[in-house]
Write the structure tokens for this entry.
Amino acid sequence: MGLRRLSSIKKRININVLKSIKLLICLFVGFVGILCVRKLPWISPHGDAPDELSGNYYYRQYRILWHSSYKKFVPAEVISYNYDKNFILAAQKPIISYDSLFKGIVYKDGTDRIYFWLIIHKEYLILGPMIEEEYQEARMKYGVPSDLKLKRVKAE
């Protein structure tokens, strides 16, 4: 009788160990899954989807980024933008950050004013940051349609 009881205890211990191992595996897989999803470029930690623009660019979290590289972008905080198949227009109120995306951007009149950006797809060109007079000259030079106007960003 003592031997049967000992065998029964061993079975219960093995079952509990197996349940614990299953639980640990499930937790680990779930944790890894969450980390992977947060790294995907089309899914943000907040669950918002990017606004697809023209020329392989997208808008998300107050930035305009290029899907193929982080070297082509309009940094935060984009306050208004618009686009057609040839151009992307953006107005930006700079938020200075230690993020490497901001390295090398010079705001000649300081960071407490609005700057403008113009992306010209057929020339693979990003102009900015520009003050309003430079922006208007660039619009004329590159033939941006007059009906293509900046639109305010919706609050995220």
Remarks:
- Residues 76 and 111 are 12 Å apart (CA to CA).
- Residues 37-47 have pLDDT under 50 and may be disordered.
- The chain has two domains: 1-39, 51-152.
- The longest helix spans residues 2-39.
